[in-house]
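A student in our group prepared the protein record below, which I am reviewing. I have pasted the whole thing underneath without changing anything:
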Amino acid sequence: MALRPHHIGIVVDDLQEALRFYTTDLDCRQVTGTFVIDRPDYGVKYAFVGAKNEGGMLIELLEPMRGDLKEQLREKGPGAICELCFVVDDIESFYDQMKQKGIIMEDRNGRPLTTRKYDKMEATGNKAAYLPREAAQGTWVEILEQSGTKY
């Protein structure tokens, strides 16, 4: 199980202003365009930034429209770290290893993944699953297989 750090997620109340700050004031590069997920139960606009030199951990800036991230923005305010993400080569093997340890991975909404091993991310086509927050001492940990768009 080779985990590689990929990104941290930060909730913001204005994605465009956050992108301006990171790219102009901090001289980061914008790694992706803006992605939008717009479902009745969950809505978010997000983009990734990183250091000018390639490599290293990325920052995912998330402007929630509704759902659990919107609630987190209300509770903790803009700038709160909302997730830590690791990349794996094979998310299904990772799922199986966690299950053997008694840990059932969850979907983006915190529902146990019992009939499938991951969710396909609609904006990028990548595969993702999440460790239960209780197992990770309250941290939301995303496990990502970059089988679609790589960033």
Q: What stands out?
A: The CA atoms of residues 43 and 65 lie 5 Å apart. The chain has one domain: 4-145. The chain has a mean pLDDT of 92.
